[in-house]
């Protein structure tokens, strides 16, 4: 995946510009948000901005990341690799307060979870398989909750053929995500989702790194 779509996931305080532009003034933005001068100064300080740099960002002028973007290089190995094996849940998942017996949008999510199973290989033989399954089920549940609205939105937008049942349409849509190219295009459209999923996987790894 190219870096260009991914940088759109960076928050305003993760962007840097040294050029002052007045196409859209920071003062106009301040007034639109009903911030008094003190509140506005606090906002600028919290985000490491000046009125000039905020104006530049609001006007769509060029900027460079000032946040750690090392996660960009994790998108391909974590989100875009091929499916190495199937993943089977040991329990139902709770996704947005709904119990699901299967991993939703498995065409995209199954490969992510399955490959994290491999990350747990050093502990196999030392820990009960039921415990390792519980760990990966929890990751599957977290990723499903993070991503389901984006997948549902994309599915709804693409459901334009009235001759297909919703089930048939879903199955075709879901299977299409087994293509790395389809996933690449999807995450380019939803860069914040890509970022959140990478963060979730890395937090999950860090949390269970001390498993012994």
Kindly describe this structure.
With 212 residues, the chain is mainly alpha-helical. The chain folds into 2 domains: 64 residues, no CATH class; 137 residues, no CATH class. Helices cover 55% and strands 5% of the residues. It is built from 10 helices and 4 strands, in the order αβαααβαββααααα. The strands form 2 sheets. It has a two-stranded antiparallel sheet with strand order 1-2. Strands 3-4 form a two-stranded antiparallel ribbon. Strand 3 and strand 4 form a beta hairpin. The longest helix is centred in the last third of the chain and has 30 residues. About 2% of the residues have low confidence.
For the structure shown, list the relevant keywords.
mainly alpha; two-stranded antiparallel sheet
- How would you sum up the global shape? globular
Radius of gyration: 21 Å
The major sheet is characterized as: 2 strands, antiparallel
Distance linking N and C termini: 35 Å
Protein topology:
Blueprint: H1 3-6, E1 15-16, H2 26-32, H3 37-46, H4 51-58, E2 64-65, H5 75-79, E3 93-95, E4 98-100, H6 106-119, H7 129-158, H8 166-176, H9 180-189, H10 191-207
Antiparallel strand pairs: 1-2, 3-4
Helix pairs in contact: 6-7, 7-10, 9-10
Question: Short description, anyone?
Answer:
The chain has 212 residues and is mainly alpha-helical. It contains 10 helices and 4 strands.
